[in-house]
Every structure is written in C-alpha cells, then in structure tokens.
Design a protein that fits this description.
This protein has 291 residues and is of the alpha+beta class. It contains 12 helices and 6 strands.
C-alpha cells in the first residue's frame, strides 16, 4: 500500500553535500531523473540543504527508499569525480517516518521540510530558496523554461551531468540550469491537502522550523551560507598563512583560522566543522584552545 513518508538524511558533521551552486544544480537534475525513473513514487516536497536533504514522498516504503538510494548513489558518483572524495554518502543514514493523512500530519511534514532554509537564516520565506519546492505551491507566476525536446542530447547531457534519456520531452529546463520541479512534483495534491493559501501559510509559520528561527531572532547574528564561507577559506589561508587550504595548516594555524571564521562570519563550531571538513569535536577543540 502506498503511503506518505518523510525521508531525511543524517546531517554530515564533517563535510557538505553541496560545495557550490553547480553541485545544487546537479542534484536538482538528479532528483528529476529519479522522479522520471520511479514513476510509481509521487514527489510531494523536498529541500536540498548544505549537509542534508529532506523529501516527502508517496509510495511503498520500498519504493521511496529505492528513490532516495538512487539519488544518493547517482550524486555520490558525481561528487567523487569532481572532488575525488570516495564514499561521501555511503554511510549517510536515512531516517524514514510514516506520515498519516489524518490529524494534519501531512501539512506539518511538508511545512517542516520547506521551512528548513528559513530556520537556517538563508531566506525569509521558502519561496525565496531555489533548491527545492518552496516556490511551487499556490504560486500563479509559474516559471517559463525550455522544453527538453527543444534542446540537443549533447546539451542535455552537459546540463544534467547524465546520460539518462528517460526524462519526458515536455519537461522544462529553467534559466538556472536545472529541470523545473513543477514538471514532476504533485503540486495540486499538496495544494489539495492545504486547501487554501492562508492555511498553507499558517502551517509554515507555526512549524517547528519557524519556531526555531524565532528563538534566534534577537541574536542579531548574521547568517552566512556554508558555500559562502567555504569559498573564502582558500583566500583566508593564503592571506594569513601563505597556504592553499585548511588541511595544509599547522595545528596552531588551524586554531587561528577557525577563530577567524568564527569572528568574520559569526559561525559556530557546527558550521566550522562542515566547511573545514573536520569533526565537531575537533572544531570545538580549535575554538577552545588556549594557544
């Protein structure tokens, strides 16, 4: 029997799924490819975050797990080729929760997923976040895009980093370089669950992620995306230590680098661990060191 499931990968503590925008675009296209291949799975919502992803899928448990494993496997191959990092996601666990349709559980699950970037301080509303489905629901201003049938196979392979030919020709590539989620996400099904835009906004604003954001609303700490900090680390290492990467730094230099990241970006140990590719415990030790 097909049911609705919330599927979340474990947060990577010492690395990132996505180091730059190209990585996000590739993953967006891989989600579309998995959707085209797993036609028995209904995609209701998803969000790609720096070090984890969330999906709300409808299908049997076996089908939705196969969907997620296919995405992780496909993206891991791309990541290994680009960054020479092996087995990035092999041990990245997957949490699976059954979501009943009654008691507003489905509404809360979708809102929880969509509000992730808001809780992280990346945007003020999920519709402003491009790497997921936050702008799809109750949105009359649908993006245009170019039909896949109108681009060459070579262009398709270059854009999607894939040789797959199972994508329907009437799906669209957007100006940002990825297949538009509106072509494979069951937008009308989600809208039918919420029934009205006002009710949709109510669940967004009352979700656990929205409450988490409110807890830090008075901190006045600027939020920087992992990718923004990651892009500055080589320059930071060169300017301070005349070295090319964090891994080349001596222990005392790593301490200073971690402190500079905290000072310049108001980053905590968790974020420093992700962008530097070290464990949380190591990042905490660097920040607490008296050297």
């Amino acid at each position: 029997m097909r049911k609705v499931y919330l599927l979340s990968t474990e947060h990577l503590e010492d690395g990132l799924w996505f180091r730059d925008e190209e990585d996000f675009k590739v993953a967006m296209n891989y989600v579309a490819i998995e959707a085209a291949q797993h036609t028995e799975v209904v995609v209701l919502a998803f969000i790609l975050m720096s070090n984890h992803v969330h999906f709300v899928l409808k299908g049997t448990q076996e089908e939705v797990v196969e969907f997620m494993n296919g995405l992780k496997h496909r993206y891991s191959i791309y990541y290994q080729r680009k960054y020479r990092v092996i087995k990035l996601l092999r041990h990245n666990g997957l949490d699976i929760k059954y979501i009943p349709y009654d008691e507003e559980a489905c509404e809360r699950a979708v809102a929880y997923v969509l509000m992730n970037p808001v809780a992280a301080g990346i945007c003020a509303h999920p519709s402003q976040y491009p790497w997921g489905t936050g702008d799809l629901y109750f949105n009359q201003a649908a993006k245009g895009g170019t039909c896949l049938k109108d681009i060459s196979l070579r262009a398709f392979k270059r854009i999607t980093h894939s040789d797959e030919e199972s994508i329907p020709g009437n799906w669209h590539i957007g100006e940002d370089g990825y297949i538009l989620p509106r072509d494979y996400v069951a937008v009308k099904d989600v809208e039918a669950v919420y029934r009205r835009p006002q009710r949709f906004n109510y669940f967004l604003n009352s979700s656990s992620k929205a409450k988490k954001r409110l807890e830090y609303a008075d901190s006045n700490l600027p939020a920087f995306r992992d990718q923004s900090i990651l892009a500055t680390i080589p320059d930071l290492c060169r300017s301070l230590f005349n070295k090319e990467s964090f891994y080349q730094l001596l222990p005392e230099e790593q301490i200073e680098c971690a402190r500079q990241i905290r000072f310049r970006f108001s980053a905590d140990a968790t974020q420093i661990a992700r962008v530097c590719g070290i464990s949380y415990a190591q990042a905490a030790r660097l920040l607490d060191s008296s050297v």
